[in-house]
Amino acid sequence: MSDDQMVTIQVDGRELKAKAGTLLIEVTDAAGINIPRFCYHKKLSIAANCRMCLVEVAKVPKPLPACATPVNEGMQVYTRSPLALAAQKGTMEFLLINHPLDCPICDQGGECELQDIALGYGNDASRFVEGKRVVPDRDIGPLIATDFTRCIHCTRCVRFGAEIAGIRELGATGRGEHMEIGTYIEKSVDSELSGNIIDICPVGSLTSKPFLYSARAWELVQRKSIAPHDSVGSSLNLHVRRNQVMRVHPRDNEAVNECWISDRDRFSYEGLYSADRLTRPLVKKSGNWVETDWQEALEAVAQGLKRARGTSGNRLGALLSPGATLEEFYLAQKLMRGLGSENIDFRLRQSDFRAEEPAYPWLGQTIAQLDELNAALLIGSNIRKEQPILGHRLRKAALTGAQISFINPLELELNYHATQLVNSPAGMISDLAAVAKALGGYGGLIDSAEVSDVHHRLAEQLRTAERATVLLGNIAVAHPDYALIQGLARIIAGNSGSLLGYLPEAANSVGGRLAGALPGNDGSNAQEMLSNPHKGYLLMGVEPGFDCWNPARAMETLGQAEFVAALSAFRSQSLEQVADVILPIAAFAETSGTYVNAQGEWQSFSGAVAPAGESRPAWKVLRVLGNLLDLPGFDQVSSEEILAEARQVAGDRKPDNSADGGVAYERLLAGVGLTRIGDVPIYALDPLVRRAASLQKTRDAIEASSRINAREAAMAGLADGDKVVVKQDKNSAKLRVVIDPTVPDGCVRIPAGLVGTDTLGGQIGDVTLEKA
Amino acid sequence: MGFKNVPMSVAKPSVNKESLFSPELRAEIDKWIAKYPQEWRQSAVMAALMLVQEENGGYLTTDLMDKVAAYLDMAPIAVYEVASFYSMYELKPVGKHKICVCTNVSCMINGSDQIVEYLEKKLGAKLGQSSADGRYTLKEVECLGACGGAPMFQIGNKYYENLTPELIDSILAGLE
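Above: the input entities. Below: the structure tokens describing the complete assembly.
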């Protein structure tokens, strides 16, 4: 029988059509017929070990598990017959034998699959008189609380680890009644997708640690939202109680995040309630910060900007967070342009602006299309930590045979087989030139490139694959020779017939462009604004010490300005050092807005809770500023109105990665000495996640350190744990040495965006180490 | 447990496999690896654990299991699962002689309870415990497939059937 043959089956007397070989439970789920289950999950392999979905099939003497029974022509199924019910109730009785009756103190209570199904299939009293099994809880990290006595051994979490997260951390050890889910040894669960096991656990065995004992499911109101960190824009459900976001769950969106979200999206809400949340306007008066009312603060900003502007708008500059909403971007640039300034940018982590950039850079394909790739070359990307959901998609492609390769300055900890070409940042350019040469590219530095076997292999993989892509990640953007990387990537993609794609850094890196938050004619870009002091600056959602490519220079330049106005949801040391007025703005979940994700999808959301304290949505603040500055066109009453206006300006622009970039650029990074690699760790990306306490306790939240491989350490006479003084330009930082085999020769990994490395210069550049 | 589309091997094979075990032990394990297709070297995990356990005086440690995992390029938890599932692997030190008494149906009907009672008294150790001198460990096991000779136990590689107290005395006396 061929697989695509349709068959007709009967379920409880209803006729259903399905493809032969489909599993019975999929057919009944699609038809809305309810069969109880615990171990079955649509995204995981079939285990058929809970036995809850037993149904009666005509002519079969014993009940069959619907999750493991393929449908056949003429199959007659009874889901509620006496035999089926007896089987289901019997299973239920066994499952409840060892399950504690602690629903009143269990966080899963009220949203528990076992509780729900027990109501339908369980007995009101237990016949079990023997001793119940108790399993000690284990500490598996700061995100997930365990109560393994409640476990019914469905193994969903174990299968999730192997099949979705791609690292086996949880397992089922022991046997029979002694079987336990756990890590066996004392160990934390470190996957960047680990929080999803909280959702798939059908009982209260795995629950959210930050949320533990803080609310009951039925007190929560569910509101839709969009994830505010990476450019995936995962669909979220925010669970709100009394104007507070209590937890975050994924919302099914097959085209984007399927039914998963990254831990960053799930647990970053904690940052909303961090101690340094800004709730009242602040004005600096003779060097001291004073809380004030909105009236005074807004007027101070209007006056300050007017004064700094003087006779030329060109004296002002705006630096905006790439995580701002489209509406905020739009009004901010309108404000600046109204004041006569074309100095507007959100590309704070980019240093090389020599290349012409595409008008509407995007992933180059839909997110779901990543699943179907046959080959991919990622340049300067730690996709697994930068855009975890895209990393998961790429892993799916890899497991079905796609050839994935990376050209990076760090060896990544991957969860699939891939070719990793690890070289210094300067060496990356040579590698790219070599791959371009192997594909018949010519001109500039390509001609002098030395092509080795591995370059040929990468080139062949891309050239022969039916669906191939070349993707540029966050490390590429931060590269001092980003223009060259773009040019080379364009040649590699063009000559191999691959799609060129960008992996935008933040939630709205794409939207910023559409809203026009880029420098206009003769306007300064982020680097120019932060190198040549302007009289006045407007910062929105930016912590200059952590969010800029060169924090030391940013702080210095901003410090020289006459007036700096900041819109921020948080108090921040580096901001307070340079700003004159700080206006408190609504953070994620507190404002309505729109993000445009990596696949160019406009995703609008509304606010789920009221802004904290006296803070206000940034779009309202900008609108009032526009009024105070007597600028026309600032009378919108809703974010929808701004969106409509922004849409008109954006027109019907389609995502487009084409540009005229070549490779005729000088190499800026010589890489003769020691080169710093300043990647941004997953939980240091933006002000919100930097304040999410539980995420900051995970293994991925690495501390500021100076990481070199053993060879470099030996040459410099350094040992693990030593203190070194890192010197970059005229800046320095004292850091601990960590021996890290993933760092190539001639390099030192000093992550950016962390306390301790914020006194240093550019993310990638020359440094020296001296033993302290 | 089979995982959908997921290779059993870890993404990054371990290096320096030679440093994990002695050349003799590696040769023994490699014989087992050779029995399976190349991409399924993990299938040798049971034999490898057996050999490593034997070399370590009858029991496994977490460190040894981690070494087996590294040698076979599999996730350590997958090795813990195997080692904790089968009763032939010991995760704590055992006596020189491990007496595995079957208490399943056929043996029970033929008096395995009395056999256990006699052994416990004689060795001064309960099921799952070792004798004070560390010479014997008493262990309850499931059916070993020797129902025809019930009641029975296994010591080392040998089965002893149709047990009686007198027979037990002579068997134990005959051990090294």
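Note for the figure: Chain A has a mean pLDDT of 95.
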